[in-house]
Amino acid sequence: MADGYGHPGTDTSAPLVLKDPPPKPCRVIVVGNEKGGAGKSTVSVHLAIALMRMGLRVGVIDLDVRQRTLTRYMENRNRWMQSTGAQLPLPEIIRIDGSTERDLDLAEQEESRRFNEAVARLRAVCSVILVDAPGGNTHLSRTAHMTADTLITPLNDSFVDFDLLGDVNPQTLEVLRPSFYSEMVWQCRKNKARTLRQPIDWIVMRNRMSPLEARNKRKVGEALNNLAKRIGFRLAPGLSERVIYRELFPAGLTLLDLTEQGSNTSFTMSHVAARQELRDLLILLRLPELAGVELVF
Ligand SMILES: Nc1ncnc2c1ncn2[C@@H]1O[C@H](COP(=O)(O)OP(=O)(O)O)[C@@H](O)[C@H]1O
Ligand SMILES: [Mg+2]
């Protein structure tokens, strides 16, 4: 897959051939949130394809040992390419399985080793690695968070999901204390700063925003602004609720593939607006790998 584009029949599980040493350092982007259903896999797939369309070599790691959404997405994409003959960007993908060791220490060692090997393997051939983290606070998830250069946390636009980030006063929306997930990220940031002397750029993005819930939207936005200042993350404008995200999975397509050969979904104004939201997210990420590169979708 020299051009990074998958051709029909490409085996996504084929071993990578490591040729040259990496030309430049590789950025690890982790898409994580303890909560399931926040949009991690949807955001991971869309970002991976967007970055490939911008000319970057992208590798993805599926850490969700139960749901495997990302792996299934890419399998569907491969099948779609075979049946339509379309040539679409197809990232290298590595799926990591959880350890079956019964001893916790041994299980964690094995999982750390599997994760580090996957990162090393992709680092040699990619300039960006995207990790789709699992829901829940697992060892694999914590290991990935500790490796992140950029951490993106999608968050459903609801106080139920907000609660994993922070506890707020319902009247004033003032942050009372950070909660589980923020504490975990804090530990990972400390750990990375101590061991590697490198920061984690943390971006929280709202997902599935509804135009019908103006009051809820405003209140969640205000609380997130307060929390961003208190625990140090950047806030992205986020993605709206759109049916298209749910419809694309069986074909393994993204919003960026709708105008390609074989796509039988008509491209509407809603999709134009959705692409704009994705563009805004990419701009906000401020990835050095995209410095000076024109957005091409
Ligand atoms: N912006 C969105 N609009 C509509 N549906 C969405 C949106 N983002 C995600 N979804 C849907 O929500 C569900 C959960 O998303 P997913 O990406 O699998 O979350 P996670 O990986 O965090 O568990 C999926 O059915 C997905 O299609
Ligand atoms: Mg997922």
The overall pLDDT, averaged over residues, is 90
Spatial strand arrangement across the major sheet: 5-3-6-2-7-10-11
Strand content of the residues, in percent?
A: 15-25%
Helical residues, percent: 40-55%
List the ions, cofactors and other small molecules found in this model. adenosine-5'-diphosphate, magnesium ion
DSSP strand tally? 11
Taken in chain order, the helices and strands follow as EEHEHEEHEHEHEEHEHEHH
Give the second-level CATH assignment, the architecture: 3-Layer(aba) Sandwich
Straight-line distance between termini:
22 Å
Quickly count the helices. 9
Tell me the major beta sheet.
Answer: 7 strands, parallel
Whole-angstrom Rg: 19 Å
Molecular structure report:
It is a single chain. The chain has 9 helices and 11 strands. It has 297 residues and is α/β, with parallel strands linked by helices. The relative contact order is 0.17. α1 packs across α2 (69-84). Helix content is 40%, strand content 16%. Magnesium ion (MG) binds next to α1.
Provide a short characterization of the protein structure.
The chain has 297 residues and is of the alpha/beta class. The protein contains 9 helices and 11 strands. Helix 1 crosses helix 2 and helix 3 packs parallel to helix 4.
Annotate the secondary structure layout.
Elements: E1 5-6, E2 27-31, H1 40-53, E3 58-62, H2 69-84, E4 88-89, E5 92-95, H3 104-123, E6 128-132, H4 139-147, E7 150-156, H5 159-162, E8 166-168, E9 175-178, H6 180-195, E10 201-207, H7 214-231, E11 234-236, H8 243-247, H9 269-285
Parallel strand pairs: 2-6, 2-7, 3-5, 3-6, 7-10, 10-11
Antiparallel strand pairs: 1-4, 8-9
The chain binds adenosine-5'-diphosphate (ADP) and magnesium ion (MG).
